[in-house]
Amino acid sequence: MTASRAKAFARWPKPKIGDAVAGLSVAMVLIPQSLAYAELAGLPAYYGLYAALVPPVVAAFFVSSPYLQTGPVAMTSVLTFGALAGLAVPQSPTYVALAALLAIVVGVVRTMLGLVRAGWVAYLMSQPMLKGFTTGAAILILSSQLPTALGVVTENGDLLGRAFWAIMHFREWDVASVGLSAITLILVLGGRRLHPVFPGVLVAVIIGIAFSRLTGYAGPMVGEIPRALPPFSLDLPWTSSLSLLVPGAVIALVGFAEPSAIARTFAAQDRAVWSPNEEFVSQGAANIAAGLSGGFPVGGSFSRSSINRLAGGKTRWSGAFVGLVVLLALPVAGILSALPRAVLAATVIAAVLKLIAIRPLIRIVRMTYLQGLVAWATFLLTLALAPRIDLAVIIGIGLAILVHLWRELRVHVRARYHDGTLMLEPQGVLFFASAPGLEEALIHKLAQYPLTGHLDINLNRLGRIDYSGALVIKDLADEAEQAGLTVSISAMQPQARRIFKKVLGEDSSLLR
Predict the structure, then answer these.
(1) Helix (H/G/I), strand (E/B), else coil: 431
(2) Which of 26, 66, 87, 167 has its CA at 20 to 30 Å from residue 178's CA atom?
(3) pLDDT reported for residue 498
(4) Residues with Cβ within 8 Å of residue 179, at least 6 apart in sequence
(5) Distance, CA of 24 to CA of 306 (rounded, Å)
């Protein structure tokens, strides 16, 4: 442990009443959500409780934001399913073990990024790519839950196909399941309008359990929930670690987008300091703990973090209280066995509806075609490659990088000719890869104005220049002087002037 970290622990604030109240409020939402997200990840529902117990406590020791709440979340859960569905049968012992190992891989990647102070990598994912992926993944999540919410048993097929089949065969809808789903959506979505901390999920769970027990509901339910503590174990399929490295890295980065956005938002509102490096460590430690305690990959939840803040949470202790409440709830968690799965499905649907953002995707295209291409390509690939949506992320990142490089390679040159003077204004970023293109463009412009006597290369519109770019301009100036022209280089930014002084010499007559 570093000296700075030891000092941070020594300065831990004392727990406040607001932290306890916030912890209880968050836990009442987290417990039913964890069951839903475990099923979304392909695990038995009760494994969500394991992922909701230890990770919030461990994250509290390292967290940078006092409001960030860690635990199972929709996006990380669907990425988990996508990574493991092709390796083992969902809900099987092998699948459960792989999910725990995947959590450790995610945790190690995040922890290492934080320790080497590489929090900046979280910003390498372009917003168009993230917007396209998030929207596509949200549609897949919604599609996966629709059959259960409607009480329909579908045939095998892809997620979108099963959802479409369930919608079209409305005569097979189960009235009780549809009713419970509708009530859940109204309570969760409508409750937010009444008050941000209204426990809509908790009320829906209570209604669902009461309905199930009073009416003898015959639809699918959560089923048996063990009362034991999480199965802390190192007996995992470690030989599969390499095969999980790429999806684990994708989850580590993509899954960090939400907690980083939460922490930045709240830090800005409170005028407080936030460290992405510390947050990487906190989320990494939480995932390692999830894997060692029988859970699956976890992340930061925007909705639960907002509840924590609004309910009076002030310090990192609120996260520790969340884990404590889940621990105290384990002995009585069996009551949730009668909870209709339709309620859980509707809970997931309510959580991801806000993530479906088609209008922003259209807006991106209107603003910039290239970034729109990245957004829509990632969106469509996410739908087409399901369940391997981690591949869509990798391709989306690659497309974003290619678009960036293509733009950087293009240097536009504007020419102005007056009384024998040709002013050339290159615009863009001039570095070793774009320098040859600039040389070709400048020669072409000179050929258009053969009567030029003086050449002025104006660098006012050039964003950045490196050594290779300066050499290209120097060579062009030398060639122009050999052809009988006088040459000047003007309107340089300070960074460009320093480079040109090294290339041309301190006393060069070309500099203006």
Answers:
(1) coil
(2) 26
(3) 80
(4) none
(5) 14
